[in-house]
Amino acid sequence: MAAELLANPASKAGAIEITNGSCLCGSITYIISGTPSTTVLCHCISCKKSSGSAFMANNFYEASVKPQFLSPPTGERSVSQFNITSPTSTLKTYNDTSPDDGSFVKRSFCGDCGSNIFIKNPKWKGAVIVATGTLDYEEALKEWKPEAEFFCKRRGPWLSSIGANEEKKFNAMT
């Protein structure tokens, strides 16, 4: 079930990696320490409209977003995996009330270039959902593969040969 993938959004075991990311114009930058708890393709209407694509590729991280200017970690594991590292004057948040289940999510994006940066979902209080396309680390993106897919009832039929294994495809995010 989809909820089991996200019930405890903690970084997977392994070496702590540092990954940077940014919006298209570079006004908003962030740093991630560690690996995502899961990687997901979301086919919900909200993600499609927000991304302007047939789906949205997302990484789930353990985080309490700290929107202040932070220096990079000094070798110690930070409390939060996701930290914004640039001034956030252009960071905007939209309360998206369009999800299928009747709830809402907070979509944060750059007010200058419009890039989606991250999503907070009240269902997953300990997680931040980062738009995978904003990662700066090209090698990580080459290796990226979805571990699950949500809202497959809205999945384009032409996507049948890509994505997660069949047992990790869910019609909703429950």
Primary descriptors:
seven-stranded mixed β-sheet, 174 residues, 10 strands, 3 helices, globular, single chain, mainly beta, Metal Binding Protein, Guanine Nucleotide Exchange Factor, Chain A
Report the biggest beta sheet as strand number plus sense, adding barrel if it closes.
7 strands, mixed
Order of helices and strands: HEEEHEEEEEEHE
Shape: globular
Q: Compute the gyration radius: what is it?
A: 15 Å
**Which CATH-level-2 architecture?**
Beta Complex
Side-by-side strand order of the widest sheet:
6-7-8-9-4-3-10
Classify the helix fraction into a percent range: 10-25%
Beta-strand residue percentage = 25-35%
Count of β-strands: 10
**Structural class per helix/strand content?**
mainly beta
How would you sum up this structure, described in words?
It is a single chain. The protein is mostly beta strands. Helices cover 10% and strands 29% of the residues. It has one domain (2-156): Metal Binding Protein, Guanine Nucleotide Exchange Factor, Chain A (Beta Complex), CATH 2.170.150. It has 3 helices and 10 strands. The model is unreliable at 7-13 and 65-78 (pLDDT under 50).
Give the structure's gist in a few sentences.
By secondary structure, this protein is mostly beta strands. 10% of the residues lie in helices and 29% in strands. The protein has three helices and ten strands.
